[in-house]
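Example 4.3 (complexes with small molecules)
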Amino acid sequence: MHVRNGLVEAIGHTPLIRLEGPSKATGCAILGKAEFLNPGGSIKDRAALAMIRAAQAAGTLPPGTPIVEGTAGNTGIGLALLGNALGYPVRIVMPETQSREKQDALRLCGADLRLVKAVPYRDPGNYVHVARRLAEAEGGLWVNQFDNTANRDGHRDTTGAEILRQSGGRLDAFTCAVGTGGTLAGVGLALKAHDPDIRVVLADPMGSALYAWHTTGELKSEGSSITEGIGQGRITANLEGAPIDGAVRIDDAEALRVLFDLIRHDGLVLGGSSGINVAAAMRVARDLGPGHTVVTVLCDGGARYQSKLYNPEFLKARDLPVPDWL
Ligand code: PMP
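Answer. The structure with 4'-deoxy-4'-aminopyridoxal-5'-phosphate bound is encoded below.
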């Protein structure tokens, strides 16, 4: 018998799943780290826990201190659950463009949710700055996931270490999209420490500036994406010095086709960033040729986006592919 004590110990230890459809299509082993199985439903439970633990260790989170964060939703859900289990009130600032399902999940957890207009980072009304000012005004802890490197350290020590253990360290490449960069940088650092020849590839949605940054050195974006929680216009502290060997850009139509196939052929209902990640893994696998192993991350589940990614009206209005069974 193996019992995990409470929410904290239930985070992480997720399976590494061989994705049969993508593996068959590419002749490679495409392996997905099943982060949608975390208690809060996403990869961000790990970052939330790592950042809370780091603040406790630094003495900046005495019992009862409000935890304040700006988030696309998933970090907020992780923080709200942990706040409940560990005794901290949680205040979340989120752009109003994020899915209704994530807003509902945050309210269900009892988070104090404030929705703000979606404006660029340079605007003082951006959700990140609103969260910082709210924390200052209330004597709360601003988690600051983008520039708090406890996020990346947590992924290096848990997500990265688990991938190495579960794959026996035998992998050729890793693909990952970036929101804060914590996952890509943390896992990348763990993989490179084990074997510098493992290729770390950035998977970028349209509308993000990182593909251009990696390929031309200039932070520049074009287009847009319906995916949530990923895409970045600046080099966050978590991304600073991340080991990145290559970058691929994936548009929404390609990501959606991969997501629809994963539902019908693999039995996995996943969120948009997982579609970007798996599509990128398949591109890298085709470049490497048959017989290689490519690992990626299944960041969250599709139920969180049913009103968007899996809503025929939403897709049709944007000229995106609609699955024939919906
Ligand atoms: N996918 C989803 C669904 C997310 O919510 C996030 C985090 N915003 C990411 C991917 C990106 O992860 P990271 O912040 O570690 O770059």
